[in-house]
């Protein structure tokens, strides 16, 4: 594709602004063997991660700048910088015991995005594998299969976009981990669709396999990451209805989305619960969805709309009386 030199100067200015906003652009070490870096997940952003190394490109192509348009090959991977994450401590408090546990997680500082990856950390000679996500990612499933031949990881999650904001673009930026433990993201492709109908969805899948040699034996690490973007009508009101075995209603409690309690103890004699959600549809006005919960269910899942246009899942524990 062709870009005029003026456009390149504009890109340089944009990268300078990005640096002021907290982006960390690090030039890869030439000694690193990128082929051994493992794909570990995805960083989902609503803005394109412009990691193109313009300075490197200009140094390599300075002789071609004679006032004419500069042609940049589509195969420009060597000009792609990496956005490195910082390993930080994270304090978690147990809801039951109040015990505080400190863990480590990788954070892309200064970048607004939703991380979803499975990474390795090293502490005191011990190796820890951790799955990291974001509350914007609902229905998350992480499956790990370990055999003598290697390890297989699958990540599957959904971002529910409000039907009133369904024209947003989401970029799926691949995240890698190098052999020395560092984690970094690279620019990915965007996904967008027009429409405001609940249930409209699209997905992107990333797959990769890495082969390593341990104690003279070859082992494979493979990963599959599926990210779905789905449209949801924004919840406006949530009702929890309890019924006995004769289908008689025992209670009805109404909540604003996101304000449900952490735990609900169904009344004595409650046989099942109906979660009723009133939603706002751009085309149909109010719509109603209902979900059945029985005594085998341990949690009740509802949704609320965040300011960024994402509908986030809230989990409420159900403590049934036996």
Structural commentary:
- With 322 residues, this protein is mainly beta.
- The protein is built from 2 helices and 23 strands.
- Strands 2, 3, 5, 8, 9, 12, 13 and 14 form an 8-stranded antiparallel β-sheet that branches. Strands 10, 11, 15, 16, 19, 22 and 23 form a 7-stranded mixed β-sheet that branches. It has a 4-stranded antiparallel β-sheet with strand order 18-17-20-21, with no helix packed on it.
- It starts with a strand and ends with a strand.
Q: In sequence order, what are the helices and strands, one letter per element? A: EHEEHEEEEEEEEEEEEEEEEEEEE
Number of strands: 23
Approximate strand percentage? over 45%
Poorly predicted runs are: 1-34, 70-74
Comma- or semicolon-separated keywords:
322 residues, mainly beta, eight-stranded antiparallel sheet, seven-stranded mixed sheet, disordered N terminus
Give the topology.
Elements: E1 2-3, H1 5-20, E2 25-26, E3 38-45, H2 54-61, E4 70-71, E5 82-84, E6 86-93, E7 100-107, E8 113-123, E9 126-132, E10 138-147, E11 150-162, E12 170-177, E13 183-185, E14 189-191, E15 201-214, E16 217-232, E17 235-243, E18 249-255, E19 263-264, E20 272-281, E21 285-294, E22 299-305, E23 310-318
Parallel strand pairs: 11-16, 19-23
Antiparallel strand pairs: 1-4, 2-5, 3-8, 3-12, 5-13, 6-7, 8-9, 10-11, 11-23, 12-13, 12-14, 15-16, 17-18, 17-20, 20-21, 22-23
């Amino acid at each position: 594709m062709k870009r005029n030199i003026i456009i390149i100067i504009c890109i340089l200015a944009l990268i300078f602004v990005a640096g002021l906003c907290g982006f960390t652009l690090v030039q890869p070490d030439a000694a690193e063997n990128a082929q051994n870096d493992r794909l570990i997940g995805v960083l989902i952003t609503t803005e394109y991660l412009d990691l193109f190394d313009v300075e490197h490109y200009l140094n390599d192509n300075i002789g071609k700048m004679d006032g004419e348009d500069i042609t940049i090959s589509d195969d420009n991977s060597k000009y792609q910088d990496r956005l490195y994450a910082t390993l930080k401590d994270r304090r978690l408090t147990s809801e039951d015991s109040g015990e505080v546990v400190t863990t480590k997680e990788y954070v892309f500082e200064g970048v607004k995005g939703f991380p979803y990856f499975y990474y390795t950390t090293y502490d005191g000679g011990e190796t820890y594998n951790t799955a990291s996500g974001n509350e914007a990612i609902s229905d998350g499933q992480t499956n790990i299969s370990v055999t003598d031949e290697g390890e297989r990881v699958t990540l599957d999650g959904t971002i529910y976009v409000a039907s009133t904001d369904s024209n947003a673009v989401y970029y799926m930026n691949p995240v890698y981990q190098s052999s020395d433990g560092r984690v970094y993201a690279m620019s990915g492709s965007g996904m967008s669709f027009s429409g405001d109908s609940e249930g409209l969805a699209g997905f992107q899948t990333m797959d990769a396999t890495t082969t390593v040699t341990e104690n003279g034996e070859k082992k494979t690490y493979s990963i599959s990451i599926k990210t779905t973007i789905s449209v949801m009508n924004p919840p406006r009101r949530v009702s929890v209805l309890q019924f006995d075995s004769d289908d008689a209603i025992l209670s009805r409690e109404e909540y604003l989305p996101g304000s449900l309690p952490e735990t609900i103890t169904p009344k004595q004699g409650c046989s099942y619960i109906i979660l009723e959600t009133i939603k706002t549809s751009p085309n149909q006005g109010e719509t109603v969805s209902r979900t059945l919960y029985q005594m085998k269910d341990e949690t009740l899942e509802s949704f609320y709309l965040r300011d960024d246009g994402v509908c986030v899942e809230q989990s409420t524990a159900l403590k049934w009386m036996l």
